[in-house]
Amino acid sequence: MMANIEKKIMKLCVCKAERPKFKEVAPILLSNPQMASVLIVDYETEVYSLPTNVFNFDTQTKREQIRGLTKIAFDIFDQRFLRKMKTSESKGIVVIADEESRRMMYTAIGANVAKEKSIACVFDIKDSVQNILTLNLDVYYLLNIADLSDNDFKHVIRDICGRACQNCAVFLTFDHFDEEDGWRVDILQKVLSKKQVQPPQAIVAFNAFNPFVALIDSTANLGYIHTFRERGFRLDAVASPIDKPASITAGVSRNTDFDETTSSKLAYRLASIFEQMSEFPTVRYYRAFHRQNRLIAEMFLKHFKERQKSTSKNRRVYSRNYTLIIVDRSIDLLTPILHSSTYLPFVFQELELIYNSGDNQIDEKLSKISVDQVYQTVIDLVKQNSSDAQNDQKKRSLQQHIENIEMMNNKLKNGYRALMDVESMVLGKSKTSKASDKNVKEKTIKKLLHATHKAITPLDIIRLFTIYLLTEEKIVPKYEKLLKNKKQLTAAELEKVSEFAKLTKRLFEANKIALQKLIDKPMIAQIINAFSRGKLSNDTFPEAERGRGSDSRNKIFIFMLGGLSYSELQFAGNFDGKLEVNLCSDGVMTSRMFYEHLIRNS
């Protein structure tokens, strides 16, 4: 029967000369409830597999081939989700998930594993999944309830109440620490109780961006920076009670409870990752002007020890190969707004193209290649793999990169190259002589503003002039006039440029960081370099728990509170052939997202 269903769908594909929409395939499924293991669907984007892969791994990928944080993400989903699926008389399993949870599942398990577990379809919570489709199946809800809108949450509750299936269960992708989300957990429990279904279970998962990068939240948390600005850039407004007298800090931040809750959530999720790795790291944190880094470090130790006690019966042995270093976005607000000159950051940040090439090894080879050299590098890789007739996945991956490079080159030809040259000049990286630097810089900027470049957006101009204001006192009046006349920036946008530059300068002062050092090398790269040489300052990066022994210089795990930029991801992986570098954050953001966080929502 299942073979016949595949033939029907494949015949439909041939007739249309392309993959049909899911709604065209649905009647075949509805008339054949025994669809288990035949079709895997991402309903929202109408992508399904026959067995084309909708997950990160090729359908032939074996479990033992995945590695690093990708392996840890797989293990968490395997142990806390897949293995908890009950075996029943049903014909298969349907998963209904929100976008964030679906993404985490896609990066954690491969299509082959989904098929092993008889996962037939993966639907979005907004889809109207008919009961006739699930009547003989098990339905598992995978939810990140904290980030669901009220309408989506109501829709999920109605869906669970009216769902007709063999078995039903609800899994929470992250956890439910927020007090403000407690009422949602209570409602879920009452609904499941009436259906005689067990309470929701927390997976405490994370998004494995690649084997060396982990994301443990759906958004970057920048509340401490907002507080700093709202309080007039006063350090005492966000300082740690440990570092400042109680009389100064008492009641200064209206976000104190929120900050502690957020810190607890992030610390708990970090602890979950290290517990799954069977690693108890040395914990260090950046001594910032605010208390968030220290809070997360202390709460990490608290949660980790609690989890140790709860699993003591299993006699798990913990290794000490890692040093966890907790930092925050305020140490480097320059890197996220710089225009990318390396290939993969350019694709993500400048093209704003999120894609999955399907081959981590090729992505790693291209991650640090400059935009000028990447085309030849890809051509060389194509030649190397041309004789490998079996490896279709590599060929598809390289084809995707060739398409990306074509888009990148078009953007560079349409003014982006000139923009990047001006930015280098503003930052003092230009090769022009020092005597003529200022004159050349002014002429080049004026020429750029006079020209009409299709690829340059208002956001690019905002980024450029924010950087300009970090090196100069104010925008030259003639630039302001040109910007307004050419309608590249409004007066309000110019004001926001000044505001962001002022905020960045004050944060540099608060953290005692020199701009020139960040121009030379991003702060994350400086931390990695200092750590590898045993030169990371104990005053600036104190241990959260003294007496646990010296750092392991074998593996480093850096957690960035407030989001990683795509440019910083290139530092994950192997450093100098000796140090394994893992990066983790509550989110990854483009410069557009960064400005929306810090300026437009102010």
Automatic annotation (TrEMBL):
UniProt-listed SUPFAM superfamilies: Sec1/munc18-like (SM) proteins (SSF56815)
Alphabetical list of InterPro entries matching this protein: Sec1-like, Sec1-like_dom2, Sec1-like_sf
Pfam families linked: Sec1 (PF00995)
Biological processes per GO annotation: vesicle-mediated transport
Family: Belongs to the STXBP/unc-18/SEC1 family.
Protein's UniProt name: Uncharacterized protein
